[in-house]
Design brief:
- The two termini are about 40 Å apart.
- A 6-stranded mixed beta sheet has the order 7-8-9-3-10-11, sandwiched between helices. Strands 2-1-4-5-6 form a 5-stranded antiparallel beta sheet, covered by helices on one side.
- It has helices at about 45-50, 95-100, 110-125, 140-150, 170-185, 195-205, 220-225, 230-235; strands at about 5-15, 15-25, 30-35, 60-65, 65-70, 75, 80-85, 155-160, 190-195, 205-210, 215-220, 240-250, 250-255, 260, 275-280, 285, 295-300, 305-310, 320-325, 335-340, 345-350.
- By secondary structure, it is α+β, with helices and mostly antiparallel strands.
Length: about 350
């Protein structure tokens, strides 16, 4: 099956500066994806190039077999059958909810407009608010209006630029899941741009981590977390600490906390100095463990259902561990620590 969207080796420039370089990915029909990265990494530039709001200096952007962008040809945004949801909603303040949703349907018949409006009001739980104006709505309701307006023209692809960033944390999580369900119900492909990992993990089928204008890894949330392709991905995704070790076989590393065996083979020579990435859930602490070593708790962060502890090993190496919050340890207390590692993620020592 051919891809719905095919981004081929694009380069984007601002004046003489290269912002995005040699970036490629594709999206299948009905797939929800995310471009994730820190501020200034180039993710919004990629989104603008797909929307037709920015030119590309190299490569191609193809949607449903139609060339949208190349260095010599750019189709106008309104001719791309792409919907867009902006960070600030961009609703028309003088139009009601119903009028905002129907704004792009002026070529459709009155009956078609009413049918589309009714369907989208129902999907977005806005039926009771159809006659209200944007200033009479909450932030979450305004965002759903913006979504409904973008979907009214039945786009082949929906682009979303940091759409939840102006909302409080709980509403952001709830709306994230609601919008994902709406898109899946309609079978609409979408790309979300965000710097928030939790948002990306909950929303997207596949995530592209952009680092320094390049696509560092395009993968599922599970693989980004457990199988990062390089140190930049490992550092950005999730929490974690690096534990020094020595390679004793292609699948094993000897460390201060014992031998770590993994699910993959590395090509290092025996005796190579490496660093093993340990996630907070790779470590267990308690009072009595077999084959455990003593560590000292140096910091703690209570988060409600769990507590994040920072541990100091005898060598001075610091690690982080997350445990259920009903286990309460004091700063300065010594506890036993042991590893429970299913994925060996290691990199040669710098």
């Amino acid at each position: 099956m051919p891809a719905l969207l095919d981004v081929q080796n694009i380069q984007c420039r601002y004046q003489n500066q290269v912002i995005v370089r040699e970036l490629s990915f594709h999206i299948m029909s009905g797939e929800i994806c995310c471009l994730l990265g820190a501020s200034g990494c180039g993710k919004t530039t990629v989104l603008r190039a797909i929307a037709g709001l920015s030119d590309i200096a190299q490569g191609k952007i193809i949607l449903d077999g139609k060339l949208l962008s190349s260095p010599t040809n750019t189709i106008a945004p309104e001719q791309r059958t792409i919907g867009m949801v902006f960070q600030d909603y961009a609703l028309f303040p003088h139009l009601t909810v119903a009028e905002n949703i129907c704004f792009g349907l002026h070529k459709a018949s009155k009956q078609q407009q009413l049918e589309t409006l009714d369907e989208l009001l129902t999907l977005t739980h806005l039926t009771a608010f159809s006659k209200r104006y944007p200033h009479q709505l909450s932030g979450g309701q305004q965002q759903r209006v913006a979504l409904a307006r973008a979907l009214a023209t039945k786009p082949k692809l929906l682009l979303m630029d940091e759409p939840f960033s102006n909302l409080d944390a709980e509403l952001r999580k709830r709306l994230n899941l609601e919008i994902r369900d709406i898109l899946k119900t309609l079978g609409i492909s979408a790309i979300l741009v965000t710097h928030d990992q939790e948002e990306a993990f909950a929303f997207a089928d596949h995530i592209g981590l952009i680092h320094g204008g390049r696509l560092a890894q395009w993968d599922t949330a599970f693989n980004l977390y457990h199988e990062p392709i390089d140190r930049s991905v490992a550092n950005f995704i999730g929490r974690g600490s690096f534990l020094p070790g020595v390679s004793i076989s292609p699948e094993q590393v000897n460390t201060e906390l014992g031998v770590i065996s993994g699910n993959r083979a590395y090509q290092w020579p025996i005796g190579a100095e490496v660093e093993v990435l340990l996630r907070p859930d790779d470590i267990q602490i308690g009072h009595h463990f077999d084959d455990a070593i003593n560590v000292t708790i140096s910091h703690k962060l209570f988060t409600g259902s769990s507590t994040l502890y920072r541990l100091v090993l005898a060598s001075g190496t610091e690690l982080e561990v997350i445990v259920p919050s009903h286990h309460d340890y004091a700063i300065g207390q010594q506890v036993c620590a042991r590893l429970h590692v299913d994925h060996l993620i290691a990199f040669e020592k710098d």
